[in-house]
Input
Amino acid sequence: MKPDRPDHSAPLDAAERQAVLPVICYPVDSLPRPDLQALRAARVGWTLTDRVLVPPRDARCFVVPAGHFFRITSIDGPQVGDLNLWSHDLSERFYSGKTRALHGTHLSSGDRLWSNFPTLRPLATITDDTLDWYGFDSFGGGVHDVIGTRCDPYTHNLLSDGGQYHHCCHSNLTRALARFRGLPLHEAESHVHDVLNVFMCTGFARDTGQYFMKASPVRPGDYLEFLADTDLLGGLSACPGGDCGGEHSSDSAACYPLLVEVFRPGTVPEGWAPSRANRYDRGHGLTD
Ligand SMILES: [Zn+2]
Output
């Protein structure tokens, strides 16, 4: 955090330097925008092919074939979910940092969930978001962030004087992946990564820059919907923080299940094709 009283005095031209206008790091004008109308049209006549209930303070894995939709729905009460995505190969996974750099701190319809290097391609496209009305509130908070990481037992241990808690999203996702893929626990843990915080309402405090959360505006019936741009394995944890309006990393919050549904569209969405790996040649200048 920035000090209240800096050790170094400001230079004479400090105001001038601070007044320099920012530029967007990654303008996305050159990225093709998904045709949401065409994608949504493919929902007509779709067929439910899988339904996975994620219990409170636990996680489940689910499979989504390329070109299928999946929906995460709040069902019994306000609940936040931590989402991991992998392609069929667990080494290719959701890259929240680059997704944030491209689409901003909080995602909504039309944004894509990008994978790590060297593929850096869309794993999924958000096709519908019933909380898109929320925008940014007066605190700078928004929903569906890619600025947090996931609640985890290591940070809890650091901040709680040695506490041991086993139902943080990190552990929930680790157990779910271990069971689903038949992996040793610690091997599964190495594949768990930074999440999309589904339904979570977060931001950065304007005075200190600290990451904050507040009670999610999600209500039963709200959903976030995606189209899989390649074959996917998903993991979703129903966060122990519930609506994340109080605390996480404990059993004190009211927690509810989340529903994941997978749909096969009646027709291939017009203009859609599976995403392909990034075309950088991976030379990295070694032979220059
Ligand atoms: Zn969590």
